[in-house]
Design brief:
The protein is an alpha/beta fold. Helices cover 57% and strands 7% of the residues. It has 23 helices and 9 strands.
Length: 600
């Protein structure tokens, strides 16, 4: 059905929307017109996703917080549909549960239409328009975006929403791995032929001119895919600036199909997909006329390819000459034979083995961290007990007690260091790509990291200001806290769209783990103000507003208001200063503090 919808969309200039058996199919035509592919930006036709209009923001960014690069032609087609059609209004109807019963939505597209379908799916995912996620199926789709887009999809756990079907000899999914200047001229000759075949359902054989253009395109693309296949992503990163490479990176699941319909294999590891895009191509020797014809026909013939694959899967298949008794290696060989690579292809075997080994390594690392985390929960419990003891037995906040670091606080300091060691190593493993790409989106680790940060960072702040007169926020904050806070904030964006429960009482831990650092800085500002009579800095008024909001939202812990706490000392000095300057002074925080609202 998905391919049929893609094919039938050929008569549309923008998109079609049809419902079948309770499923809404949004299909984009192939866009085989030259102007869709011929672009001016970037060596590989890439452009910043926010260049024209900021339909994408928020979650669609790399791990460096920068927007991704995408194919200019696909982006312009998508933006044209967004601005000049009823697409946005239709999507609002299909995704608003108040207006109608939600139906599954599948975005489909062929060729450049697949790239547009990919962008449309990303747009719906990012806007959180649905309680249930849309799904995207593409056929013969060129690569869409660079590594930042791959990072965003992995981080948001969206990879499972994409399936890209690639036929063995189809050149289009591979062509953006070559510089645009090397593929532009052959494309100018081939695109009109594809457009004519798709528009008229004709089966005219390509003439010699078109075949020569296809042969040139195959050769040029093969050379550049070979570079990536031989070096791999890690090596290419090290050779950045020496080897010029395409910025595009795959994401989602790739379903590689044999051109003869012998079978199919699904791969979701990005580096392995890149290697297989090369290894499933013919060699760099002059492609035969038969290969050229396959290249031209398979791009527009996914219907027949899929039909043969389905028939073969029903009838079953086996390896003609098994070379191993290992069931694992036999499985690899079966996949390679299914997509036409051949079970004896060592490079392909290694690529699949490496992908499997990497996934196993990631799973093993996560399992080890889970065991360590359970052990660290005991230390967390001991620190919670330390906090409670400080409040009930000594009548002080654990922050103020730890800042003095008496003998009773030494054990807490030891536990603080043990937890820092664990989270520092976890963050290092994440940065070294030794954990799954969606690790930082998993609730288990976000919740554990947030609980750790809110309980322990106040101790880190206390230790810093005991030893230093600097600014913790700008000079002392550990990377682990910054990363863990970013993970939480990214997750909160998805949670906020579903509604947040309003607090009815104060939090057990102050939600902003940097509260005490903000307090330390305004305490210094107030001291300078009292001593030097300088103009009042804005930070003091801003801090008062900040505390007021935290109290109103219930995001502050009641221990902050213990008599003799650093905060209460600051408040007394601040109130005295304000009343001396303005005898009639009043403020929302003043009302809260006078009424002792935290005792209710």
């Amino acid at each position: 059905m998905a391919w049929e919808e893609s094919r039938l969309a050929k008569n549309s200039e923008t998109y079609t929307l049809n419902e079948y058996e309770g499923v809404a199919y949004v299909a984009f035509p192939s866009f085989h017109k030259i102007e869709g592919f011929i672009v001016k930006e970037g060596k590989y036709g890439e452009v910043n996703i926010q260049t024209y209009d900021k339909f994408f923001s928020g979650c669609v960014k790399g791990n460096d917080d920068q927007p991704p690069l995408v194919h200019q032609g696909a982006l312009q087609l998508f933006l044209h549909i967004m601005k000049n059609t009823d697409f946005q209004a239709k999507m609002q109807i299909y995704t608003d549960s108040k207006q109608r019963k939600l139906k599954p939505i599948i975005f489909v597209g062929h060729s450049l239409g697949g790239a547009v379908a990919t962008l449309a799916t990303l747009w719906v995912l990012e806007k959180r328009l649905r309680q249930s996620s849309p799904f995207c199926i593409t056929f013969g789709c060129p690569l869409v975006g660079n590594g930042r887009l791959h990072e965003a999809v992995g981080r948001e756990n969206w990879a499972g929403n994409f399936c890209h079907v690639v036929s063995q000899h189809d050149i289009v999914p591979r062509m953006l791995l070559a510089p645009f200047e090397s593929i532009a001229e052959p494309l100018v000759a081939i695109l009109p032929y594809w457009h004519s075949i798709m528009a008229n359902d004709s089966k005219n054989a390509p003439d010699s001119f078109i075949q020569d253009a296809c042969r040139a395109l195959l050769n040029n693309v093969w050379q550049h895919t070979n570079t990536i296949a031989n070096y791999g992503l890690d090596s290419l990163r090290e050779l950045e600036g020496v080897i010029k490479r395409s910025p595009y990176r795959p994401f989602g699941t790739y379903m590689f199909c044999s051109g003869e319909g012998e079978g199919a294999a699904c791969i979701n590891n990005s580096e392995t997909v890149l290697k297989m895009l090369h290894l499933t191509m013919p060699s760099n020797e002059k492609p035969s006329d038969n290969i050229v014809k396959h290249c031209l026909s398979e791009h527009i013939g996914y219907g027949s390819v899929l039909k043969r694959v389905i028939q073969k899967s029903i009838s079953g298949r086996r390896i003609a000459k098994p070379s191993s008794e290992s069931s694992y290696k036999m499985g690899l060989s079966l996949q390679l034979e299914a997509i036409g690579v051949g079970a004896q292809n060592d490079n392909a075997q290694l690529a699949l083995q490496r992908a499997g080994n990497m996934e196993n390594k990631h799973n093993t690392n996560v399992a080890k961290l889970a065991v360590e985390l359970s052990e660290k929960q005991c230390i967390m419990a001991e620190l919670e007990w330390y906090k409670e003891r400080c409040e009930k037995e000594n009548g002080v906040t654990y922050y103020d007690s730890f800042k003095k670091l008496d003998r009773k606080d030494i054990d807490a300091n030891f536990r603080r260091a043990k937890l820092a060691e664990f989270w520092d190593e976890l963050i290092s493993m994440w940065k070294r790509n030794e954990l799954p790409s969606d690790f930082q989106t998993q609730n288990k680790w976000i919740n554990a990291g947030t609980a750790y940060r809110r309980l322990v960072e106040p101790l880190d702040i206390a230790y810093y200001y005991r030893m230093s007169k600097g600014n913790y926020l700008s000079n002392g904050r550990a990377t682990r806290h910054k990363v863990l806070q970013t993970w939480m904030e990214e997750k909160e964006k998805t949670r906020s769209s579903r509604g947040q429960k309003v607090r009815t009482k104060f939090a057990s831990l102050t939600q902003d783990s940097c509260f005490w650092a903000h307090l330390e800085e305004v305490m210094k500002d107030l001291e300078n103000l009292n001593q030097a009579q300088h103009p009042m800095p804005e930070s003091l008024e801003m801090f008062e507003d900040y505390v007021t909001k935290m109290i109103n939202d219930g995001n502050i812990s009641a221990d902050v208001f213990l008599e003799g706490s650093s905060f209460m000392d600051w408040w007394k000095e601040w109130k005295e200063y304000k009343q001396n300057q303005f005898p009639e002074w009043n403020s929302p925080l003043y009302e809260i503090m006078e009424n002792e609202i935290w005792t209710r």
